[in-house]
């Protein structure tokens, strides 16, 4: 029995994140229960099935429609959904549910660092960028010096970090240096609030 079949036989519901129709077809063939269709506005990493894959750049609604037209599995839409209207829209397009991440980044329950939280409301940061160097896979975050410099490389050979490794990542976060912290965020970060997770969920669904 394959790994996914074993999990399902044990009563575990198996979801696969997909970022293209090709990944969706591959996941369907493996026998998963449902697909998380993750569009280009998503915060953090996009769950491509291999590091080399270029995730689809089509807007979420188009990607969702393409998967809906081809695959009968339940679909969960993700990426850039920050309001009840956004959630209603993807449900109307045939999604069974919506998955939101960025909308919760400032909630007290989120593990977001103080440096990251402050950056999410700092007018200095005006856009997000999707780059690869942190893990090799495409991931979106606020455009700061770290992410801007990372655009030059596919992996973590970021000159400022190589020359001064202590200044990047955890040390920068601890020191409150938002320019050299990994500021994960989706394109809809400005709609975020500091409400509790329960209140954010209520806003997204009513
Ligand atoms: C801080 C953060 C880290 C994330 N890390 C991953 C990850 O490692 N792998 C993944 O497939 N998705 C990751 N995601 C994406 C979420 O699973 C979800 O699809 C996404 O947050 C939905 O888009 P939104 O951020 O616009 O709401 C991450 C999202 C955030 C906000």
TrEMBL record:
Gene3D superfamilies recorded: Aldolase class I (3.20.20.70)
Cofactor requirement: FMN
Keyword flag rRNA-binding: no
Catalysed reactions, as listed in the record: 3 propionate 3-nitronate + 3 O2 + H2O = 3 3-oxopropanoate + 2 nitrate + nitrite + H2O2 + 3 H(+)
Key word Flavoprotein present: yes
Membrane-spanning parts: none
Keywords from the named record: Detoxification, Flavoprotein, FMN, Monooxygenase, Oxidoreductase
Annotated CDD domains: NPD_like (cd04730)
Recorded family membership: Belongs to the nitronate monooxygenase family. NMO class I subfamily.
Name of the molecule in the record: Propionate 3-nitronate monooxygenase
Organism in which the protein naturally occurs: Nostocoides vanveenii
Lineage: Bacteria, Bacillati, Actinomycetota, Actinomycetes, Micrococcales
